[in-house]
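@channel sequence for tomorrow's demo:
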Amino acid sequence: MSKTVEVRPLQKSDLAGLLALYAQLIENDLPLAPALAETRFDDMLKRDGLTVFGGFADGILASTCVLIVVPNLTRGGMPYAFIENVVTDGAHRRTGLGRQTVKTAIDAAFDAGCYTVRLQTGGKRPGTLDFYRSCGFDLTKHGLEVRRIPPR
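structure tokens (generated this afternoon):
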């Protein structure tokens, strides 16, 4: 049975599905109160240059990523972009939906004039890097970070 697939920016009504996906992204994540989740998501939806994309299979949110477009004063003023919080529901992995969701975000970044789209992953699942390569990413730079998250 074929599925109807749609990738689009998420809306306020998609929050519950998004939170369910995020539960699969970070095991033992820090708790998030429902009221704070609503406030944060509302802030995200209003923020210029930030888009939360969702991939839907038969109307069910099954994949997501966040695109952040950053204004820039180098590269002739072309912006750059980051993709974060990529996750596909376990039952929908290896169907192409996650790839389609990420590629939609990449296309949106290039449509916004970005000269590059960057992504970091801490994913430990076998095949994670292969998945990102299939979306067009190359291992061209080193990712560094400073964290301030309490240990889990």
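heads up for whoever presents: The helical segments are 15-25, 34-46, 97-111, 128-134.
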